[in-house]
Write a structure and sequence with these properties.
63 residues
């Protein structure tokens, strides 16, 4: 399973860490994903969702 949010598609982003001496070192930021049981098309499935989508109420949690 990929490391992207199943709702919004948020994934890993890349950029530079800049030191005090202005050296650029490549780094990445990963989304805060949680594996949750959610109702998808009327059935319960386990999907990876970012915490922003969980907090915003875009996911209907399965009981």
């Amino acid at each position: 399973m990929s490391k992207v949010c199943a709702i919004c598609g948020k994934g890993k982003v890349f950029g530079n860490k800049v030191t005090f001496s202005n050296k650029k070192i490549s780094r990445s930021w990963s989304p805060n994903l949680r594996s949750v049981r959610a109702v998808v098309d009327g059935s319960t499935k386990r999907i990876k969702v970012c915490t922003r989508c969980l907090r915003s109420g875009y996911v209907e949690r399965a009981l």
